[in-house]
Every structure is written in structure tokens, then in C-alpha cells.
Amino acid sequence: MDILKLLSRSTKQTARTSKDAPSTKLPSAGTSANPQLFHDAVPEARGKKRKRGGDVEQTRAHDEEEESINFFETSSAASKAEKASAPKKTAEEPASTPEKVATKATTELLDEAECRQLLRSHRLKVTLLPSSKPDKVVKKSKKKKAVETSKKEEYKQVYPQPLVAFNDLRSTYGISGRMAENLVQQGYKIPTEVQMGSLPLLLRPKTALGDAIEEAEDSDGEVHVDLLAVAPTGSGKTLAFLIPVVDRIIQRRRTSQDKEHILEAIVVAPTKELATQIVNEARKLSLGTGVKVVGMRKGMQITPRDSPEGEVDDISEDEEEQEEDGSDAEKPKKSSQPAVKADILVSTPGLLFSALSGKNSDQATLLTIRTLVLDEADVLLDPLFRDQTLGIWNSCMNPDLRVTLWSATMGSNIESLTSTTIQARRSLLGLPSSHIIRLVVGLKDSAIPNITHRLIYAATEPGKLIALRQLLHPTAKSADETQSLRPPFLVFTQTIPRAVALHSELLYDIPSEAGGSTRIAVLHAELSDTARSNIMARFRNGDIWVLITTDILSRGVDFRGINGVVNYDVPNSGAAYIHRVGRTGRAGREGGVAVTFYTKEDIPYVKAVANIIAASEKAAGKKESEAGMKRWLLDALPTPSKQEKKKLKMHGVEARRGGLGEKSKDGKGKGKFKAQISTKSGYERKLENNRRGAIQGSKRRMEAEKEEHNGEDSEWGGIDE
Ligand SMILES: Nc1ncnc2c1ncn2[C@@H]1O[C@H](COP(=O)(O)OP(=O)(O)OP(=O)(O)O)[C@@H](O)[C@H]1O
């Protein structure tokens, strides 16, 4: 079914020819050939001589595409035999000797020049952050210079082994055959940049880093690594943090007699939707490895290992999958069950923190946790979640604790908070201080270059509504790629009441033959968990075409087929813009569109968005004449003060606070009321208007008739005789 055709049917849109139809360019049109954002080899692009690393990479990437059956296949007969038995395995992996892994490792490593070349050509920058807190920069000029120099010396760029091809995960870094098989099953072929940079570092730090650093060792003899990774939205960070988590558990089991489920890893994510998605990804990845993944639920307890058998229970995988399908609406919840028996726990900070600070809090010191993952770390360490996140972090008392932090945006304040927390924890446990590794992919804090941005001035609130309808119902004249937005797409508003009101407004905008009001939905934090899961499942299935939401869905959530994002209300910060628009153009897909409306009220705040758009267009290689963001507009927009930025981040644009706008004192709805979205649907208002019009019309007619009648009475009619 052509969604756009149906939507534009009432506006007599002319049928697109296959030539001008943009379907092949749509992100929902299929899988991306290459998920890498920066896969152009730099030396070639700049006309320099190519080094050997580039060739290695090209050849391997090509080989991967050729190997349609199994790109994890190694050349040796022994490994072929090993691979052949892999799919049949359903239980845990048989032990693989460390010597075997080590022998393989030596055969695959690149020299430093090749590493540099590859890392650079994929815009990967790896830095060791200072192991101690950098000295305070004092303002006195001479001192400042001296201190800055010493600070500079502490930031050291390193060139670890990049992951050239997915089959190296097995051959060089020794991941389990079963996990490798799971990756094949899911169709992963070429590693994304963040996977290239982080997987060797986290899987086998010694192999990846060589003698680049002399570091503290963990009890398993590996170099201690904490990682802060900043990589674009949709660039595969989930897989980058999950593979090492699952691998570390499998490695521990290989060497230990204890095959029980021990809670070894915690993944924290800011929203329930993201946490559920991570649980699903982790389960797909660890299928058949014996690693168990559980999503945290209300009422669950984090029990210590020696909790009595039989008491231990958790939500079954089936049950959670049902929740994701939205099919468990009528089922009673098992949320009061007492325990978590799993290897990996995924949770929002609030749920886990309250479980830790509950009745059994003294038992809750998480001694067994060896990996803590903070997904969307900048938001988790923002004041909103900071206490909860640090509370969880500080409960993890295992000396081998590895912390990895991930996001597409990371302020320098988050970086220093991370350093301080890691070093403080290590000194509390009497451990030597260690370096934190920072991995940055591309330009830090920027929007992905593979989507089209449109910043549209709509002047007023009603103007935005008209503009949104224009996107939804392209007219014959406007149904080109610059005007229309092909569903499915997401619409973001500033507040919950505004999302609800916009939903009511648009409820009947989709023709009934296309599914009518069922095609449009609203998702926000005040809905029940079941309702939220239900809507997510329907949107993923393609039953919902337009999903109106708040920033609750702006981070991490991966909808593969989204064609566009509409910022109905301007986002509260540059970071919020980057994450919102990053819901489209995932895994390198081209064709995603991000539309942002702004009104008179937004002008003081829109510069951050405009700057990000300009940087993204530059990164995409657009010339000034092709760029949507014009220089004159950038220059004309005012730069908000720090204070204004802070206020905006905390509360949003004032005229829209509280959602529907405040009534003026006389109740007439002027002034602040202009930022209101009607709470009735356009269709309902049209009916009401028609009804009101009909009543007024009939009143007018009656009055006219009356007047006529009176006129007749008063009119001189002569003498009736
Ligand atoms: N190597 C790969 N090849 C192809 N697709 C991939 C690869 N790695 C991940 N993906 C896919 O890319 C999509 C985005 O991945 P993911 O959700 O992990 O992105 P992210 O970097 O966490 O994004 P965000 O910053 O928005 O949280 C997913 O659909 C995932 O399956």
C-alpha cells in the first residue's frame, strides 16, 4: 500500500512515476548496504597515497560481502570443523584454550601505521584521559600556560587495533562461536565505526593496545579498561557494548567451576522503552550461550547469590516478549516476585536505585557486578538522574568493575564527573588509579550527516499546524521531496499536554480507507506501561504511521523504518536535537528527513539547532549553494546567553510551558494563549463549526423572515376594501 498516495488522495495528488518516486532513497525502503558513516578512505578522498591498511580494509570488507554463507568462517580446516558444529550447539560453549586464542591473535594484528591509517580514515579518535584529576586552570597568564601544557601532556592519543571485519571477533578476539553465529543470523556484515574502535579494546585490551599503556590489571590478568564512547546516533553502540558484556560472562564461565547465573553486568538506560529494546538485543545476541538477560521490573529485588533456592524467580523471557508485542494487557503481573536470577540486568536508573535502597539495601552491595554500562550516559549523569545513577555505580563494589559510558553527545562536565567517580572509587578500594579511554567517532556532538534537515519558519502555532498538515497531506503541487514527509514518522512536542492535544487535533486527518484514527497515536510517560508497550509494538509493526511523543522517545530507541522526524516544538537543547533527529537515518541509511518548525517565540533559541544543521550539512560535503541552512540566516539568528540556554534546557520555551498555554486573566485567551494547541480534533472542530454555522444561519434566516414578516405588517398595504 502506498501510504503517501492514500494520504494525499483527498488532495488529488498526481501519481508519482517510478522515476521520480523517492522510495529507493527512503530509510524504510530496505537495509543499508554499508552501515558505516565515514567509510570513504581519507587518503583517497584527499588525493594522497593509500597505505596498506586501507587495502586490507577494502579487501576484507569486500570479502565479507562475498561470504554470504558465513563471514565468520576462518581459513583453517580446524576452524571450519569447529564452525560446522557451532549451529548445532544449544547449550553453553565448550572451553576454548587461551593459547588457541593467542595464536590466532598474532596472525591478524595490524602494525601501528596501519592502525593509525584505518582509525583516521574512519574518523576514530582514541585518547587516554588523565588518570588523575587535571590541575585547576588558574587565570594568571604565566601559570595558566604552564598548567595547560601539563594538562595537554596528560591527554594521550593512542592507536589501538581496530576491528577490520566481523570474523576477527572470533579469530582474533576469541568470542564464542555461538555468539559469532548469532551475529551472522542477525545479518551483521560490516562493523560500524564505534564497533571498529571499541570492540578490540573491550574484548582483549592487551591485544588491542599492545604496549601503548602500562595499566592496572584486573584479577583475570587483563588490562583494566573503562571506556567513554561518543558516537553518532544509530551507529550501533548497543552491539558495541553488549558483545563485550556477554563475552566477559562466557570467559568467566570458561575458567570457573561455577556455571550458575551470577549477576555480572548491569546496563542502565534512561527509559523503559530503551531498556526493553536492549533486553531484546542482548537476548538475540546471547541465544544458546547460556547467558541470561533480564529486564528490571517494579517490585523485583536484587538478591545476593546465596538467596534460598525456590524463592528465586523472575519474569520469563516469553512474558517480556509478550509485553513488547503488547499482547499481555489482560495478564496479571508477576512484578511482586522477589528476585533476579540472571547474568545481565537491564534497568532504568529509578527502578534499580529504588530496589537497591529498599528494605534489603544492606544486602544489596553489588559485589558480583563486573561490568556497568551506562547507555545515554550524559542524560544518566545529568541532574535529573544523577543521584540514582551514582547510587547504582557506588553500589558496585567489585574491584574488577569495568564501566563503559555511551552516547551521541557528551559534555566535558560529564567527562570530568566520570573521571572523578572512577578514580574516587578506585582509591576507596585501594586500587591504583587508571586511565579512562575516550573514543570519539566523527565530530563530537554532531547530528548524523546522512539525513536531510529542514528548518521551517511557521510564525505562529496555527502556522505550525498548517505546516504539519502540509507534510501529512501533500497537495499535487507540493508533493515533491521537499514538501512531503512519507510516514511512518515521529512528531516531538515540548510537553505531554501538547502531545495529547496535537494527537486530538490530528486524530481524523488520515482517511478512513487508510486506517483512519488507528494510524495515529500518542506516547508519553503518563500512559501505563502496557499502553506504552502496545503503542511501541504497533509502531514497529507499521500499524501506526504517525507517532506523537515527547522527549521520552528521543534517545536510543531504534525504529529501523522511520522516514522522518518532525520537531513540532523546537527541542530544548542542541543535544536534544541531535538525539531526536537521530531516530531516522539509522545504521547509515540515506533518505531520512528531519523537519523543525519554529515560531516567533522560538527565534531567541533556534540558533543551536541551526548551527548543528550547518555542521551536519558541511560534514555531508554539501556546498554552500546546496545547503539548506543559509549563511544569512545563521548570522541573523541571535545567540542565546548561557543563562537563557540553561533556562531553555530546564523548562523549554516559556510560551509553551504547561502545554496548552495559560489563559489570560480576562479568560479571553489572547496573549499567552496563542501557544495553545486545540484539544479537539480538526474534524470535531469542523463539525462543531458547521453546527454553529448552521445554527447561526438558521437564526439569521429566522430573523430575516421575522423582519420580512414585520415589514409586511408595517408596510402600507393600502385600504383593504
Ligand atoms: N554492524 C552493523 N551493520 C548493520 N547494522 C547494524 C550494525 N550495528 C548495528 N546495526 C543496526 O543499527 C541500528 C542502530 O543501532 P543502535 O540502536 O545500537 O544505535 P545507537 O548507536 O545505540 O543509537 P542511539 O545513539 O540512537 O542510541 C540497529 O537497528 C542495529 O541493528
UniProtKB/TrEMBL annotation:
InterPro entries: DDX52/Rok1_DEADc, DEAD/DEAH_box_helicase_dom, Helicase_ATP-bd, Helicase_C-like, P-loop_NTPase. Interacts with the U3 snoRNA and is associated with the 90S and 40S pre-ribosomes. This is ATP-dependent RNA helicase. Keywords: ATP-binding, Helicase, Hydrolase, Nucleotide-binding, Nucleus, RNA-binding. Its EC number is 3.6.4.13. It comes from Phialocephala subalpina. GO terms for biological process: maturation of SSU-rRNA. It holds the Pfam family Helicase_C. Residues 25-35 have a biased composition (Polar residues). The keyword Hydrolase applies. Residues 1-104, 298-340, 640-721 are annotated as: Disordered. RNA helicase. One of its GO terms (molecular function) is ATP binding. The Q motif is unique to and characteristic of the DEAD box family of RNA helicases and controls ATP binding and hydrolysis. The keyword Nucleus applies. Belongs to the DEAD box helicase family. DDX52/ROK1 subfamily. Residues 467-637 form the Helicase C-terminal domain.
